[in-house]
Write a structure and sequence with these properties.
457 residues, Chromosome segregation protein SMC, coiled coil
Length: 457
């Protein structure tokens, strides 16, 4: 009976080993066929398979310990004979080991369930859709901000700059008209000054002619004694005339007509009038008055010319500054237009790249979700089958252990009833051989029969 049980146990163990190898090979192929984008799920599966392999190794080691205990039990039976206390102690030890195995099995089952719950499964699709929405929202906000900035720049260039240019052009036109008016006024003043200078020349000529005629007509024997004095007076008048000519030349150039010059003209005119008051007739006195009046007009005209000249110089400087500012503004507008064109081109390129990236990311996430969903379902089913098979195998081993324990009890009873150990010794020896052979098969199973995936350590 014991031989039949061990044979059945060996066959069941081989069948379970073949089933485990088949499942492990299927898991290995399914994992190798997964795309590279499922690294996270492969890591989770790798962890689950590693834990499952650790459980199998632990159970194998515990079975080896049980076999060692059975060997020790048989050795004690052969050595001690009918020592029932040792048998009971061994049986209690085996019961404790079985309880410990059951507790360990429950713990490993809980670990497998926790690992199964950690697999994301449907959360991958939900997270991918959420990431797509966030990426799309981010890029829409970015494009909206860029469009708003471009609109502001275009408004600045199309409205403010053009209005400023129009205003500057109008100011330039007004300044040009003002300069034209000032130039006409300056020409009028110059013409008036030229007429006044001609009048002064004419009056001086008349004054010289009148002095010559007056000196010839007035000369008498009574006045011969005064000829020297008149000649001296004429020399003084001639000197004054030369000074007036110099002042007239200065007025013609319109450069040195100042208040001091006007004062000198008035002093010279007064001196001329006082020196010639006794030697001139009424027309000469009238000509002197005309000269004084013309001199005053010349002073006023010269002041007006100076003022117009200063105004013209200021206007020329303002026009020059305006032209420089206008050229700088035009250059700035060209640079801003180039910058806006460059920014618009860069934004178009960025929008194209973002659209391509968004389309690629959406397509890639959809493909990953479509590929992962059936594979995760298959992996979950395979993991559940592996865990169920391991639980059934451990349960089967526990049942076989209980059967072996009952067989030991039967052997003990038969030994007590028969009083001899002949048949029992033979059965024990046969059982020992079967156990040794099973130990060798378990060693082979542990060392090379289990197919371990290539990515497992």
């Amino acid at each position: 009976m014991t031989f039949n049980n061990t044979t059945f146990f060996r066959r069941e163990l081989e069948a379970k080993d073949a089933e485990i190898r088949r499942l492990m090979s299927g898991v290995s192929r399914s994992v190798e066929e997964l795309p590279h984008d499922t690294e996270y799920d492969i890591a989770v599966l790798k962890s689950a398979l590693t834990v499952a392999d650790d459980i199998i190794n632990d159970k194998t080691q515990e079975l080896e310990e049980l076999h060692k205990l059975l060997d020790g039990l048989r050795e004690k039976i052969q050595a001690e004979g009918t020592d029932e206390s040792a048998l009971h102690q061994t049986i209690e030890m085996l019961k404790n080991d079985v309880a410990r195995l059951e507790k360990c099995l429950l713990e490993r089952t809980e670990e497998l369930n926790s690992l199964k719950s950690m697999i994301p499964q449907d959360n991958i699709v939900v997270n991918a859709a959420q990431r797509e929405k966030e990426i799309e929202r981010f890029y829409r906000n970015l494009v909206g901000n860029k469009d708003a900035r471009i609109s502001q720049l275009e408004a600045l260039l199309s409205t403010d700059a053009d209005d400023l240019l129009k205003a500057l052009q109008m100011d330039n036109q007004v300044l040009a008209e003002d300069v034209y008016d000032k130039a006409n006024s300056l020409r009028d003043v110059t013409r008036k000054l030229r007429d006044a200078m001609e009048t002064i020349d004419r009056l001086q000529s008349e004054l010289a002619h009148a002095r010559t005629e007056g000196s010839e007509d007035i000369r008498s024997p009574e006045q011969d004694s005064q000829s020297d004095g008149l000649q001296e007076l004429q020399r003084i008048i001639q000197a004054k005339d030369e000074a007036i000519s110099d002042l007239r030349h200065q007025l013609a150039t319109a450069t040195d007509a100042t208040a001091d010059t006007a004062e000198r003209i008035r002093v010279l005119e007064n001196s001329l009038a006082e020196s010639s008051v006794h030697g001139r007739e009424a027309p000469v006195v009238s000509a002197s008055d005309d000269i004084v009046s013309l001199t005053q007009k010349i002073e006023l005209l010269q002041d007006e010319v100076d003022e117009k000249q200063n105004t013209i110089e200021a206007l020329v400087g303002a026009i020059k500054d305006f032209n420089e500012a206008n050229a700088s503004l035009r250059q700035s507008k060209i640079e801003m237009e180039d910058q806006v064109k460059y920014m618009r081109q860069a934004l178009e390129n960025t929008q194209g790249a973002m659209s391509h990236m968004l389309t690629s990311a959406i397509g890639q996430n959809s493909e990953v979700a479509a590929v992962l969903s059936p594979q995760l379902s298959a992996i979950d089913a395979t993991t559940n089958m592996s865990a169920l098979d391991m639980q059934q195998k451990i349960k089967y081993l526990t049942d076989e252990l209980n059967k072996s324990r009952r067989e030991v009890d039967d052997l003990k009873k038969a030994f007590q009833e028969s009083g001899s150990v002949g048949g029992s010794s033979y059965e024990i020896a046969t059982l020992r051989k079967e156990i040794n052979r099973l130990n060798k098969e378990l060693d082979r199973y542990r060392n090379g029969s289990v197919i371990t995936p290539s990515f497992l350590p």
